[in-house]
Amino acid sequence: MADTSSPSLERRRADSRTIDEPQSTEGERSLTVRSRPQASGAWSWVRYPLVAAGVALALSPLAFLWPGENPIDPTNYAERTRRVLKSIPLIDGHNDLPWQIRIELHNRLQDGRVDFNKKLLGHTDLQRMRQGMVGGQFWSVYVDCDDQQKHFEDPSWVVRDTLEQIDITRRFINEYPEDLQYCDTAACARGAFASGRISGMIGIEGGHQVGSSIATIRQVYDLGARYMTLTHNCDNAFATSASTVAAGGPDDGLLKLGYAAVKEMNRLGMMVDLSHVSHKTMRDVLGVARAPVIFSHSGAYSVEPHLRHAPDDVLRLVKQNGGIVMAVFVNRFLNMKNPDSATIHDVADHIFRIAEVCGWECVGMGSDFSGTPEVPIGLEDVSKFPDLFEILMERGATDEQMRMLAGENILRVWGNIERRALEIQATGEKPNEEEYEGRNWHKGLKNAPWMLRQSREKAATSGGAEEPYMFNVDGEGKHNPLIKQV
Ligand SMILES: [Zn+2]
């Protein structure tokens, strides 16, 4: 395998942090994680706050002095973070609160069991989103893979539940109109932020959720889904998942119908999400994508060799593609050997690495809050996003880089995907009609009103049934149980 964990990087990460507790005076923070700058490594200069701040100031005199604003002490990371997050919406790529609403409330919002304005257990509520200065959220409308993989041919409950998750997400957003605003365009997300609301968008976490049907992709797009992860932790008719490869299965990459799905998603303007897919799937998609791709919640494989992350060659392809990798906060992806000891610094490591290989234009955040029980020390819930910005700044990131991370990148990428779709549509490209090759179609009845002679002849010889008469009524319209099927 081309990409392996770098021992020197591992050591540097292990050495570069200390956990001081409790140091903070800020309310509920019981633990503050602070980095110890290192002078070694190819990009370690960025971790040296004073040097980095000096370089940043020299390169951009206005880095810490925005128009109409008072100058800020460059080491006042909290104030710099506040200014950044007031200037651009912080948009998280992946939160599973709709799944919590499903399993805990059976999608009932009206019985008063939960007030999302109050502090809840778990990772997400509106109070803590405000504390965390969240400006936009892609809500995942996740539904399980079917254990028997029946979604290939019998997708009914998976698709039904997906429709219900779209419904509950939109109803949840509409339930809090002062705080939240449903959005299905990048411009809407910017507008919601300007009006002081948190934009709420919808993402589908796996091609199994559309029953291997491209027509269903079109329908969930019409219902508001703006990204679809090609797979979750199961293969489907579109692509191979990372979990299959992790279990020793073959990496067949993007499958025949997957090429059609990507083509259609590009035509629609639906973001193609490569989190959860196998590495070959990532490469295959990047080889044919006609628009930027996203990773809604993944990291850098060269920092931690988990198959959920993007290897360096993929990060370079994403750079060419104009896409984005939104860093995930899940412990077992951040620290495979000791998940419980994963910290906010591990997330920072992934962000710096993605930026190093793909550019700062590539980075975003996709927490997976409310979708995983395991979150890093220092990033316990949605209120902690600003802490991540402070740590990144302390390690040398500039305000402009933080603006890109927060929301500028995903909004630009999304906007470019929307524009690309309009260009494709302007060529007259028709909706894609490819289908899963194992698809069974209803055969119809012998006495159906066929449109084509061949169909009628085929039905006559194929032994198909005739339309049953179901009502058991006589010629007078009276019920008569003796009248059976004709
Ligand atoms: Zn996921």
Automatic annotation (TrEMBL):
<dbReference type="InterPro" id="IPR032466">
    <property type="entry name" value="Metal_Hydrolase"/>
</dbReference>
<keyword id="KW-0224">Dipeptidase</keyword>
<keyword id="KW-0645">Protease</keyword>
<dbReference type="GO" id="GO:0006508">
    <property type="term" value="P:proteolysis"/>
</dbReference>
<comment type="similarity">
    <text>Belongs to the metallo-dependent hydrolases superfamily. Peptidase M19 family.</text>
</comment>
<feature type="region of interest" description="Disordered">
    <location>
        <begin position="1"/>
        <end position="33"/>
    </location>
</feature>
<dbReference type="GO" id="GO:0046872">
    <property type="term" value="F:metal ion binding"/>
</dbReference>
<keyword id="KW-0378">Hydrolase</keyword>
<protein>
    <recommendedName>
        <fullName>Dipeptidase</fullName>
        <ecNumber>3.4.13.19</ecNumber>
    </recommendedName>
</protein>
<keyword id="KW-0482">Metalloprotease</keyword>
<keyword id="KW-0479">Metal-binding</keyword>
<dbReference type="GO" id="GO:0070573">
    <property type="term" value="F:metallodipeptidase activity"/>
</dbReference>
<feature type="compositionally biased region" description="Basic and acidic residues">
    <location>
        <begin position="9"/>
        <end position="31"/>
    </location>
</feature>
<dbReference type="InterPro" id="IPR008257">
    <property type="entry name" value="Pept_M19"/>
</dbReference>
<keyword id="KW-0862">Zinc</keyword>
<feature type="region of interest" description="Disordered">
    <location>
        <begin position="455"/>
        <end position="486"/>
    </location>
</feature>
<dbReference type="Pfam" id="PF01244">
    <property type="entry name" value="Peptidase_M19"/>
</dbReference>
